[in-house]
Amino acid sequence: MKKLQKADYIKMYSFMLKIRRFEERAAQLYGMGKIGGFCHLYIGQEAVVVGILMTIDKNDSVVTTYRDHGHMIARGLDPKRIMAELTGREDGYSAGKGGSMHMFSKENNFYGGHGIVGAQVPIGTGIAFTHKYNGEKNICRTYIGDGAMNNGQVFEAFNLAALWKLPVLYIIENNKYGMGTSVDRAAAGLDLYKRGEAFGIPGEKVDGMNVFSVIEAADKAGKYVREGNGPYIIEVQTYRYRGHSMSDPAKYRTKEELDNYKQTDPIEIVKAEILKKKIATNDEIEKINKDTLEEIKNAAEFATNSPFPKDSELYTDVYL
Amino acid sequence: MPALSPTMTEGNLSKWLIKKGDTVKAGDLIAEIETDKATMEVEAVDEGVVLDLLFKEGEANIPVNKAIAIIGDPNEKVEVKKEAPIEKVIEEKKIEKNIETKIENKKADLIDTPSPKIEEDRNLSSEEITMRQALRDTMAEEMRKDNKVFILGEEVAEYQGAYKVTQGLLQEFGKERVLDTPISEHGFTGLAVGAAFKGLRPILEFMTFNFSMQAIDQIINSAAKTLYMSGGQINCPIVFRGPNGAAAQVAAQHSQDFSSWYSQVPGLKVIAPSTPYNAKGLLRSAISDPNPVIFLENEILYGLKGPVNNDINFSIPIGKANIEKEGKDLTIVTYSIMLQKSKEAALRLKDEYNLDTEIIDLQTLRPLDTETILNSVKKTNRLITVEESWPFGSVGSEIANIVQRDAFDYLDSPVIKVNSADVPMPYALSLEKLYLPQVDDIINAAKKVSYIK
């Protein structure tokens, strides 16, 4: 496994916390009517994307689902501009035309943010195809929700990726529910990571509440893919604390189930490790907490003060 | 000569696998025949001795249903007609369905004549090539220029193209750039779109556009909308090409025309070539374009021959219609294969009714060249649209809307649309003919807008 430095622990904690605070603030702005449409929060799942982040190369590509705010933060994008996209303002990453579900940053190799369940999987496979076609050593990380694992195009993409040995790492974020339908009511066969077996794609299941487990698996899988062996599947067992989207009361699960997961909160796990290893003191952690809160507050401030797109923007960006 | 594909009207005798005097049983291979799509082996159906081979190896363009060999009992005296009578139904099929056959009859002279504008092209080749060669050559030329251009689709590589449009590309560019895909449109279309997002320039061949419905989410939700959704960051330089519309008797699921479906979508450009000449110019523009382009070919036109401009930089701009024939009495706006029928109708309208028809070949459906259409209507004051798509919300519907809005005072009669019948495509030859717009339908529409009883 990748050897973690002291700075890595701080980085993990800071990023996970930043995602948490960002999402909480987004929920607040949604409640205030500053964010419209659909808004899917990542709270509870932070260890997944941050764990993967620790093994990523700057020139690797990423493509994900509509639950993408945390992914963008982890890719190093500016929370101010992410929030400005959520509020539909001209400083947003998509200039206010994409919204929560459709955000991109080409310069950071972040290819969305896709609103159609499963559609990002062939797309990520095509981005991996390009890395290989261009003779680059990079890989594409393609995130898949558990709901998409029953979607036909995902398996068409698996077949193509295995057939052409494409450098793509598939990460199934199994948060137990595809909207309101639990995995066991949607999937015949609960081991989603085994669904690549028929194509000869290796897969494994990982505890997604623990960032260290994610790093270990992502490191191993990333190496396998980067060495030209073809695709690999990691199924990360995670949990979203919130509903599917802001308008979902999540009545399909019990309070006990939620509380149970909160006992293994991913951010608390890292914090405990930092204190145990004496990487930082309580005061130093408090300072990170305060700075993060401040940064996100500023992001919200920025996002609510950024101008709405000009009317003339309605007709731009249809064609290049 | 057996008919070995829906659109085959003649074949080449590549090789005999039998010789005179051989005894053959049912199921024995007797010859290799090259069709419009592939080279295939032919089996004997009857038993007997090969009494005569009526064509030599290498002989080309042998019409379907012509006798090529005689197999029988040598002890029986058999009266053999060297030319078997061609069934009437096949004759009809040839006349209605195959442009090359049309060229043989006298009216076809004009049909194969390039428009005045094309004749002015100083780089026009003296040699005539088929539409499929024109498409192939253009892809090869662009692949030589830009390493980022590659082609993928079902049977494009080893098989050399289901309709031979990609013939020889695998041999020249190798398997990294000419990729056979599984029958998996949704998956490989999404893959190609991802590759285009990342900077490659894929040419994706749909064996026919009917199969693009399997992938239409990726075409519309991903390819067409992402530039907008990303605030202008991520473009998708991809060409989706392949045959669109009816072939010959392939019935409802393999005959749909998608021109109006795709033309409805902002973010897509839609092109429908009608000749080898404009196929070359337009495909080059499509491959060079930074946006997703739907390139609607026509299976029956693949064999159409004509001169081309062989300059490897020759292109025809997207969004520009071609005035195929100038006229003063009425305007026909059309595209793709219906250009041929419109030209035939124009000849008869001149002969029989002394009407001078202006024909506009749209070439591009989106963006639509409304200026050329409106200028023509302002001159002729009468308009009919001719297209193969279903009538509801067709390209003609939009043109009729634009013309009534912007040139209402110039119209001397209502705009009439000629479309396919508003039903799924039937299989039976007789019904298929009724379904598709025919020359008589165009003539009737022209008479109606001209108030001729």
Short description:
By secondary structure, chain A is an alpha/beta fold. Chain A is built from eleven helices and eight strands.
Strand line-up of the largest beta sheet of chain B: 10-9-11-12-14-13-19
The number of domains of chain A: 1
Strand elements of chain A, count = 8
Q: What's the overall average pLDDT of chain B, rounded?
A: 91
Report the sheet-strand fraction of chain A.
5-15%
Which descriptor suits the 3D outline of chain A?
A: globular
Q: What structural category characterises the helix and strand content of chain A? A: alpha/beta
For the record, what is the CATH homologous superfamily label of chain A? Thiamin diphosphate (ThDP)-binding fold, Pyr/PP domains
The averaged pLDDT of chain A comes out at 95
Shape of chain B: globular
Q: Could you say which structural class the secondary elements and strand pairing of chain B correspond to?
A: alpha/beta
Note down, in words, how this protein is organized.
The complex is a heterodimer of chains A (320) and B (453). Chain A has helices spanning 6-31, 46-53, 69-74, 79-86, 120-133, 152-163, 183-186, 211-229, 255-262, 266-276, 282-305; strands at residues 61-64, 110-113, 140-145, 168-174, 177-178, 181-182, 203-207, 232-237. The longest helix of chain A has 26 residues, at 6-31. In chain A, the strands form two sheets. Chain A has a six-stranded parallel beta sheet, sandwiched between helices. In chain A, strand 7, helix 8 (211-229) and strand 8 (232-237) form a beta-alpha-beta unit. Chain A has 320 residues and is of the alpha/beta class. Chain B folds into three domains: 10-86, Beta Barrel (OB fold (Dihydrolipoamide Acetyltransferase, E2P)); 121-309, Rossmann fold (3-Layer(aba) Sandwich); 323-449, 3-Layer(aba) Sandwich (Rossmann fold). Chain B has helices spanning 88-97, 99-104, 108-111, 116-119, 131-145, 169-173, 185-197, 216-224, 226-229, 259-263, 276-288, 338-353, 370-380, 395-406, 429-435, 439-449, and strands spanning 10-16, 23-24, 29-34, 39-43, 48-53, 62-63, 69-72, 124-130, 149-153, 178-180, 201-205, 239-243, 269-271, 293-297, 305-309, 322-325, 330-334, 357-361, 364-366, 383-386, 416-418. In chain B, helix 6 links the parallel strand 9 and strand 10 (178-180). In chain B, helix 7 (185-197) packs parallel to helix 8 and helix 13 (370-380) packs across helix 14 (395-406). The two termini of chain B are 45 Å apart. The A-B interface holds A 61, 63, 92-98, 102-106, 111-116, 119, 121-131, 133, 152-153, 155-157, 159-160, 163-164, 316-320 and B 150, 176, 179, 181-182, 184, 186-200, 217-218, 221-222, 226-235, 266-267, 269, 290-291.
